[in-house]
Amino acid sequence: MATLSVFITAFVLVSATNICLAKEFIVGDESGWTKGYDYKAWAKDKVFNVGDKLVFHYPVGAHNVFKVNATGFQNCITSPTDQALTTGNDIVFLATPGKKWYICGVGLHCESGGQKLAIAVQFPQVAPSPSPSC
């Protein structure tokens, strides 16, 4: 019973620490989510952790964002159109670790415009503080 209590306490502390340390990434920085941008280079030196957010900025109607699997990413295959993010200020919360793939489903933006992003999300490598506060 004491072990379970220690585990729960540790989990709560780590979770609170992850939320406090979460980062918000503007995809493409000042260029935003657009055709002709090198998203592979943009993501190369960034560390994405569980709890972080991706923000996709673009003119409404000009682009969209689809979360896809590896095959969809490689072949620019979107899911049903009702699953597209379309606000122009789309926020994606990175809730789980692993590879994540995003593409634009407008026209040939993914295929010929290179409008696609692949990232790896990990658990933060931070020791929890005894009293988390943001």
What does this structure look like?
With 134 residues, this protein is of the alpha/beta class. The protein has one domain: Immunoglobulin-like, CATH 2.60.40.420. 23% of the residues lie in helices and 23% in strands. The protein has a four-stranded mixed sheet with strand order 2-7-6-4. The protein is globular. The relative contact order is 0.23.
Q: Termini distance?
A: 30 Å
Taken from the alpha-carbon principal axes, the silhouette is globular
CATH domain class? Mainly Beta
**Beta-strand content:** 15-25%
Shape-level CATH architecture: Sandwich
CATH topology: Immunoglobulin-like
> What is the arithmetic mean of pLDDT?
86
Q: Which structural category do the helix and sheet elements fall into?
A: alpha/beta
In the predicted model, the low-confidence regions spanning at least 5 consecutive residues are 3-18
The main sheet comes to: 4 strands, mixed
Number of helices: 3
What's the total count of β strands?
7
Q: Output the helix-strand order.
A: HEHEEEHEEE
User: Can you say what the CATH homologous superfamily is?
Assistant: Cupredoxins -  blue copper proteins
Q: How helix-rich are the residues, as a percent range?
A: 10-25%
Rg, nearest Å: 17 Å
What is the strand arrangement across the widest sheet? 2-7-6-4
What is the domain tally? 1
Signal peptide: 1-22
Main location: membrane
GO molecular function, one term: metal ion binding
Organism: Rhamnella rubrinervis
